[in-house]
Amino acid sequence: MSTLDPVRFLTKNMRVDLALIADMIAPGSRVLDIGCGDGTLIDHLFQTKGCDARGIEIDMAEVTRAVAHGLPVMHGDADIDLEHYPDSAFDYVVLSRALQAVERPREVLRQMLRIATRAVVSFPNFGHWLVRWQLLSTGRMPMTATWDRPWHETPNIHPCTIRDFFVLCEAEGYVVERWLATDDGGRRAPWRRASRLANLFGEQGLFLLRHR
Amino acid sequence: MDQTATRIDPANLPNHTHVTFDDGITLECGASLRHHTVAYRTYGMLNADRSNAILVCHALTGDQYVAEPHPITGKPGWWDAVVGPGRPVDTDRFFVICPNVLGGCMGSTGPLTNRELPDGTVIDEPWGTEFPPVTIRDMVRAQKRLIDHLGIDRLFAVLGGSMGGMQVLQWAALYPDAVFAALPIATAAYHSAQNIAFHEVGRQAIFADPEWQNGQYWRTGRIPARGLAVARMCAHITYLSEEALTRKFGRRLQNAPKDNTEAINLFGEMFEVESYLRHQGSTFVQRFDANSYLTITRAMDYFDLAADCGGDLAVAFKGTRTRFLLASFTSDWLFPTIQSRSVARALNRAGANVSFVEFPTDKGHDAFLLDEPDFHRALAGFLGGCAIHAGLAATA
Which secondary-structure segment (H or E) carries B323? Predict the structure, then answer.
């Protein structure tokens, strides 16, 4: 079918972790993408899965770009604006590579699972072996491909590890429906069955959560 | 000031395209108008299934001449940059309708039109200040009659800035099924105390002009040009930002005009910004009626959409399927971003599909009328996206 061509093109050019996120989302669902950037994921979800996908983005230039592409994106802040959505307004809420940058990660997760049935969360894993090795061997804050800003410049104020996140989900009563570790490009890493190995070798964690 | 501008010349009033409804309209204040006229302009072609219509709502001192030279001033349409062939609101694709508001002075029923007695007879004397107070909702209901008259069940989009944006919000709240997309620009869901305060200064300037004659200035044929000009000057300051005034005029001086109509030139020279404001005032009175100014500023002051819904704006939009684009401008202090943001949040609470952008500019409230490429790209993109969701063909 000719309609598949642009889809493949789009997927190929989309960040690989966004493609993995899209795999977790059922066709035709209502989706809110928090920190949606220029709206690549919501465009993909609308084009390929017929989702009613919307976005929130804090960077006004990105919002302008998204709206100029005809995508429903509003300027907003995950820490402030989620409380204005009604309960269960969405089937999925996505927070991609932004959990570590919000002011109150636990509250943001609570809001996400209030306004949606399921939450898709991805974050860079601070437990990766290179991060551990750099801190151990140099005694200074790690600088890697994923953690690439000096400590005084980074927006990532709440780094966590994959194991930390499992602990938080347990404490908050969230069911981890699916999870996987990926490399920095977002490609699936082979440590899915062993969280300790994933925590050592995965550069990012990707989780699909729901309420217990 | 140009003396010809201070007199009413009925022969000079252009004949505006209009439709008159004779089956009556009851206003929010309780008064009824047996007849009411809506003057309007259209651009582009309505498609076969009547699905490509866009209603443009004008601001306080705007009118229906949105995309063509003004019949009185000869100046380009007030939103020429936005509406026209190949423009963000592309008249090659969309059928654009722009009505003059109820209470206006460009052909729609207002204080300038002939008064109607309670039995419906029209007498040869303008309404003047006897014209009943109208509201934004009354304006929108009058526009709905026009849309019905044109045979359009659902507008593809309703857009407007400032008071035009108030009408957009009112349209979306009152006729949700008739509005596929709503674009309230640089506006608010209510008129703030500061907004009302500036309007009151303008109104007092008109009242203080001896030529106002209790609003019955048609009796002498002399209009309260000075008062109306001062009202315009005061309002115009609120449309600009301090940065824009500094950039355009700074503290530069120029020679004062030598004509005797500008009595107050104390030292033979004047600041450029003074000259600019006087020009704004004197050109305004050529095309606007003072009693209309009183009526419309009052309508804006009354506007409070949430008040009609027990104070919760989200209730006004509950269950709406309309797609919204809210846009504001960083240096707009008359309708600041916080106002648009609170509308966006109310729409979130109502579960609505809402886009919201603030554009960086130093041009103040007026930015929505001016050349703002990012804003125009967003308008075009939003309408294009909505057209896909509405199933509108790429070309009309």
Answer: strand B323-329
